[in-house]
Amino acid sequence: MNTMEPIRNPQKIRELIKxxxxxxxxRDGILILFALNTLLRVSDMIDIKYEQLFDxxxxxxxxxxxxxxxxxxxxxxxxxxxxxxTRRIRLPxxxxxxxxxxxxxxxxxxxxxxFYSTEEPTQHVHRKTIWRRLSRYAYAVGIExxxxxxxxxxxxxxxxxxxxxxxxxxxxxxxxxxxxxxxYISINQEMIDKxxxxxxxxxxxxxxxYE
Length: 211
What we know:
Blueprint: H1 10-22, H2 26-38, H3 42-45, H4 50-53, E1 64-75, E2 79-89, H5 93-105, H6 127-140, H7 148-161, H8 166-172, H9 178-184, H10 189-199, H11 203-206
Antiparallel strand pairs: 1-2
Helix pairs in contact: 2-5, 2-7, 8-9
């Protein structure tokens, strides 16, 4: 099965961001960081407007609420059922400063889409456009494959590597189980074995400093 894998190497994430910024694609750089920080689907992100993230004084809100659309396949006859859930999100302080500068640089105001279309600025960028651009950026920096879901998986995987409890990550992803999250971010038995080996608690290691 040809599935989208997360970017596991943080250096590759840095190379990706640097390439995008060096090319002058600030909107796409902000979108990539927004996805990594929030674990939102790109399809949910592109609908976000200025007033959802900024208050009347033009400052980034401490929290913002967003409706998450989750498609659940019921049957071929009935099609898909859309389950809507509201999620409250807080953005990291450093990223808030960069987000504000981005909005100020582009003179954004209430009613504007944060991730606007360069062809039609009053509309949001299309999901397929983001997919094509991400694929091109990934190829340029030697990432085998990257799509819209790849950003979400990458953010979740990096949180797991930093020791964030898998239950918290699962909740951020709006998953129904921890098993689903482990499968989603491609945690395999080899990675689990390495994590166990890195702990390596034993009498000899613990008492070594007392000898």
